[in-house]
Specification:
alpha+beta; 4-stranded antiparallel β-sheet; 3-stranded antiparallel β-sheet; 9 strands; 41% strand
Length: 125
């Protein structure tokens, strides 16, 4: 794993890159109970899935909680990038690159934490 932190007068940017040999090894790095990552092979194609946010079991955060989240995390976001060895033919979140070999999904922390639904990022190539 590599980690970098850059800071200026406005932003703090933290970047973490994870290298792994198998999806099982990647999932083992995550300390949540459910497998956060999966890789499926279907008819010569591959589909990688990552749980971005587990959701809140259908219960929306209270108004006070939402205000607190907005106060502390306004302007903060998470960005997920999947790069593939061949063209991506399907993805459910984010923007596909011009060369169709990467997808970038960005979500603000208040938007993510204010949602009750599980978010799963899937990319197929």
């Amino acid at each position: 794993m590599s980690y970098s932190r850059k800071e200026d007068k406005v932003d703090i940017r933290i970047e973490a890159k994870v290298n792994f040999n198998s999806i099982e090894a990647l999932s083992a790095m995550d300390n949540r109970n459910e497998n956060s990552f999966s890789l499926l092979s279907e008819q010569g194609n591959r589909v990688i899935s990552q749980i971005i946010y587990a959701g809140s079991d259908g219960e929306a955060p209270s108004r006070d909680s939402l205000e607190m989240i907005e106060t502390f995390f306004s302007g903060y976001s998470l960005t997920f990038i999947v790069e593939t060895p061949s063209e991506i033919y399907k993805h459910n979140l984010g923007e596909l690159s011009a060369d169709k070999r990467s997808v970038t999904y960005k979500i603000s922390i208040p938007e993510m934490l204010g949602d009750t639904m599980k978010k799963i990022f899937e990319v197929a190539w």
